[in-house]
Amino acid sequence: MVTLNSKIPQGPLSEKWTKYKADQKLVNPANKRKLDVIVVGTGLAGASAAASLGALGFNVKIFCISDSPRRAHSIAAQGGINAAKNYPNDGDSVGRLFYDTIKGGDYRAREANVYRLAEVSNNIIDQCVAQGVPFARDYAGMLDNRSFGGAQVSRTFYAKGQTGQQLLLGAYSALSKEIKAGTVKMYERKEMMDVVLVDGKARGIITRDLQTGKLERWFGHAVVVATGGYGNVYFLSTNAMNSNGSAAWQCYKKGACFANPCYVQIHPTCIPVHGDYQSKLTLMSESLRNDGRIWVPKKIEDSEAIRAGKLKPTDIAEEDRDYYLERRYPAFGNLVPRDIASRAAKERCDAGYGVGTGQAVYLDFSSAIKRLGKDKVEARYGNLFQMYEKITAQNPYETPMMIYPAVHYTMGGLWVDYELQTTIEGLFAAGEANFSDHGANRLGASALMQGLADGYFVLPYTIQNYLSKEIYSQPIPTTVPEFDAAEKAVAEKIEKLMAIKGNKSVDTFQKELGHIMWNKVGMGRTEAGLKEAIPMLKALQEDFWANVRITGDTNSMNPELEKALRFSDHIELAQLMAKDALHREESCGGHFREEHQTEEGEAKRNDEQFMYVGAWEYQGEGNEPQLHKEELNYEFIKVQQRNYK
Amino acid sequence: MSLVKLASITKKITIAAVGAFLLLFLPMHMGLNLCILREDGGEWYRNVCHFMGTNWIVKIFEVILILSVLVHVVVAILLTIENRKARPVRYAVPSKTKTHAGSKFMIYTGGVVFAFLIIHFINFYFVKFGIVVEDDSDTYTVEVEDLQMHLNEKVALIQEEMMSGKISQEAAQEQMMALQLEYMPFLQVLQTGQPSEKISKDGEELINLTKEELVQFAGEDFKEYEPDFYTMCNKLFAQPMYSIIYLLALVILGIHLFHAINSIFQTFGLNHKKYNKAIEYLAGAYAVIVPLGFAIVPLFVMFCK
Amino acid sequence: MNLTLKIWRQENARAKGRFETYKVENISPDCSFLEMLDILNEQLVDKLSHPVCFDNDCREGICGMCGLYINGRPHGPDDGVTTCQLHMRRFKDGDTIVIEPWRARPFPIIRDLVVDRTAFDKIIQEGGYVSVTTGGVPDGNAIPIPKKNADEAMDAAACIGCGACVAACKNASAMLFVSAKVSQLALLPQGKPEAARRVQAMVAKMDELGFGNCTNTYACEAECPKQIKRSNIARMNREFMCAKVCSEE
Predict the structure, then answer these.
(1) B–C: how many Cβ contacts below 8 A?
(2) Is the ipTM of this complex over 0.95?
(3) Which of B46, B303, C5, C28 is the most exposed place for a label (fewest CB within 10 A)?
(4) For residue A419, what are the CA distances in angstroms to A19, A32, A435, A461, B36?
(5) Taking Cα atoms as reference points, which of A8, A7, A2 lies closest to residue A115?
(6) Chain C hits for B276, Cβ within 8 Å
(7) φ, ψ for residue A108 (rounded to 5)?
(8) How far apart are CA B254 and CA B256, in angstroms?
């Protein structure tokens, strides 16, 4: 059984990280060359960690499931990256960024980690500028900032609407430099299938070559997992098709605790689902809510007529429209926080007022166009309108847009201590893959910050504290029984899957899983719903292992097999999410239990009982996982109720 | 350094630089051609042809020009081979991508232009060396003074041989007679020739002869003549087929030039938002005006003569 | 919509490929092109056949993973989009759609429509970066960068590395890809110290990998889903010439 030791350094908050760095053990250059580090994942966290570790002199192997590190889904982040630079002189500081992040996370994040994140945020900007990331500049040639997600200060740095892309390409370029220098070896189109433990320490991984199907063994003195989040458990999400929670799940099954799996962020302004063939959802910038008004028809018959195609939204008279956000939240109106806007949309649609397929609400710009003129609206949102039209073939200048919430980010992940080490010694987790510094909810423009903070400025230090003890360990040959066993297990699993030869495709199961998760473990969760979900998920898992049909072979590129392997992990992960959601009898951030809300429909936390990180430990096949609690102590800030009224 | 091993951009720059040089030559050539339009019985035209054929600076440039064409062609072929190799399996559906006008066919338009150049050389350039003889009716311009000197040389040779006793006095006299007999018509022309046969250029006396006469009078080794391009030109363009081929080749040259000029700027990195439109217009203007200038000559000969 | 698909199938790099014809029925015009292929793959799985392999990931036009040569055009008939952003409403009921993989010597086929584009990574590894290591860098505002340069660098940096430029070029040239990176770093002061070395090394690698030569057809620009401009190629030519003539490296 594990004990959670967060290893938070003593001392005042603002000195913890400085003190840690002063006290930590380092590895001398001659020894660095002898130490192998495996990094899995090439997103912001993985690529930046590998590049930094390579530059320090470690032997790094980095693995990527795509054809190039540049495909990682960090690339899709649009908005920007936060930093406490205070360039606009509007009162920002490390302390304020720290406070905003903790508050945004609904007081479910670790103070010391968040403070460190805010501290290194400034270094990230400097680092990226030095790499040649083309951040937006003003006419003086200085870095431009904007305010994002309702923040009171302008602290968001951006590169057009492609900040994630530019930051990832920055990390990718740093990685490329190290690959050229020979300190980092790049392995593309290889998926991690298992982590190998020798004497209780993570010593390597098993990968499957996605081109040849070959299982391969890799040794490392330490393993870093930076494989992103598990939003694809919901099937439809803004995540990329290949994003998956498999690697993290493998670590969990080898003994790493999985923390807060129920914390899922749902973004309110996505393009709605338009058919059951749909493969993913596209995010529309949140800024649209600045001028767009959200509504559904007041009369349920109007909604029905619209859904049947008998009425057009423009046919509905002004007095027959229900601007439900303005009605319910007169002060904030359409600008209420993400979770509230999302839930309100779901509430209307569930009540039968939805438009489109029934799972959509209108985002109307007609009054903005009347007020500002079409030109001004076009100047502000032109590219977004264009993107919308490309996807839906509807002109938002003439007919209201349709939007609906979608799964966007997962705050939960592998439990890590202050050093980003999981409960398995030598196994580290970075970026979205760890349970992160975001608590129960992530602020806009903070995901990029956390990924890069972990990779550039945290892990390269903290991993040395571990590796300094490893300088005497000789590389372990990958022929030891532990590797044999791990590879054999993977091979058997693949064989078993291929042998089922059932009658349902993997996608059928994935869609079913998504359906259950979205309805029962989605935006609004209830005890009854969660209790229903768990047996449903179990039944689905059994159905999968009995009836899945995977065609093709195992020794060449086979997307069906890849999907099946990932699904087999996601279906297990989904059960843990439901279990976690069920146990957390409160509403906080991205976790909303309908039983726990204020009279106005706000999330109602239960700090007395649930101010902890819920970390689950795997207990073996068929056994209930064990919950460990890491109590959160807020020494430096006052815990308050989030209030948006 | 092997040509193949040069960097792709170096090859591109080479081909562009050489092309730019060739571009400078074209308007000059066009200007010379247009001299034919002057109704002076070809005096200007012959004068420029003579100048071009005899001036030593021009001769140096001639060599550079020919080398340029060869480099341009060789590098183009090399690039084409490399480019074909870069896509060993072609697409089943031909590309529907919009490309810059003419750019996809440069090697073909270039090939046509090169083929035309060879014909052009046969007609107008190799004749100069006597390598190619069109037909007997072609006329060549010879400087009277040169011919006279040639005759004198022959006479001197006979006299020398006689003096040294290699041949007898009788034999020498016989040879002199034969020589005089042979040269009789020529000498007659010199004395009584019509103005159309006797031309004056830069104060020199010139005479037109057929190739047959030339060989007869001056011998195979006589080099001091030049073709009468004026007559030759008029005769060639009087043939409709020849003119049509010539005109078609010019159209293709225009297409080649339009992309070429744009391309030169691009390859040299001379790209600027402010001037890109101007470059496009310049290329268009050049690609129309220069081939048109060349086209005037056959059109003039066909329709105005 | 009912459609006939002619799709290139090839087991691996060495195998001989062929076109296979498939029919898909009742496709919604709102369906994206890749979703249409998902539907086809479901059909193939039903028939116990090996699904068609095609690269895809983000499905929102930014990762650069997808790339199909559709009816004679990379990323299909729309301008400025990736294959995943192409929707079936661009086609008509009864159409025959021919789908081919990217064709270029440096992009060998892995399976069906999936090609190996690691050649791009190899070019970047030759110098598509500023050689800073983590830490020890000046403040982000220490060097002012004219807005125009920053914006232009951003436009060049928008490249997603999908390879459509190579696929579109009749010579399979990678000039647009390489020049986008060279341009981005040439426009920024951070990139200046290594500019001469970078452009020479990257061009040399590009040539070595077997990409064709640029003949300025601008097919790359026409097909680039991110509409990267050919002026980047001009800038790279300029950089290259200056490097060759002036630099001692």
Answers:
(1) 137
(2) yes
(3) B303
(4) 13, 19, 13, 8, 90
(5) A8
(6) 231
(7) -125, 20
(8) 5
How far from A583 is each of A105, A260, A589, B112, C95, CA to CA, in Å? 19, 11, 16, 81, 54
Q: Where are the domains of chain B?
A: 8-87+100-134+234-304, 140-227
pLDDT tens digit sequence for A3-59: 999 999 999 999 999 999 999 999 999 999 999 999 999 999 999 999 999 999 999
Q: List Cα–Cα distances, A365 to A68, A238, A377, A380, in angstroms.
A: 40, 24, 8, 12
Q: What is d(CA A169, CA A388) in angstroms, rounded to the nearest whole number? A: 26
Tell me whether strands A190-198 and A293-297 are parallel, antiparallel or unpaired: unpaired
Query: C3-110, superfamily in CATH?
Result: Beta-grasp domain (3.10.20.30)
pLDDT of residue B136: 45
Chain A within 8 Å of C83 (Cβ-Cβ)? no
**pLDDT over 90 (residue A223):** yes
Closest chain B residue to C200, measured at CA = B7
Q: What is the pLDDT of residues B17-54, one digit of tens each?
A: 999 999 999 999 999 999 988 888 788 888 888 788 77
Ranges for all domains in chain A classified under CATH 3.90.700.10 = 267-407
CATH class label, B8-87+100-134+234-304: mainly alpha
Least confident of A225-239, A416-430, A433-447, B156-170: B156-170
Residue (of C173, C194, C172) closest to C182 by Cα position:
C194
For CATH 1.20.58.100, the residue range(s) in chain A are 481-617
Interatomic CA distance for residues B37 and A599, integer angstroms: 99
Closest partner residue to B99 (CB to CB) among C106, C222, C241 is C222
Q: Nearest-5° angle of CA A476, CA A482, CA A488? A: 125
The SS3 of residue B198 is: strand
Best residue in C134, C181, C194 for a mutation probing chain A (most A CBs within 10 Å): C134
| DSSP symbol at B36 | G
Pairing between β-strand C3-9 and β-strand C96-100 as defined by DSSP bridges: parallel
Closest chain A residue to the Cα of C58, Cα to Cα: A240
In contact, A157 and A125? CB cutoff 8 Å: yes
Do residues A106 and A263 lie in contact, with contact meaning Cβ atoms separated by under 8 Å? no
Residues sharing a CB contact under 8 Å with residue A481, sequence separation 6 or more, in sequence order: none
Cross-chain residue pair C211–B86, CB shorter than 8 Å: yes
CATH number 1.10.1060.10 given to C117-246: yes
- To the question of domain A267-407 being in CATH 3.90.700.10, the answer is yes
Q: Which of C60, C79, C152 to mutate to test the interface with A (most CBs of A within 10 A)?
A: C60
| Helix, coil or strand: residue A283 | strand
> Mean pLDDT across the stretch A90-108?
93
Distance from CA of B100 to the nearest CA of C (A): 5
Is residue C29 less than 8 Å (CB to CB) from chain B?
A: no
The class of domain A481-617 in CATH terms is mainly alpha
Q: C154: part of which helix (H) or strand (E)?
A: helix C147-157
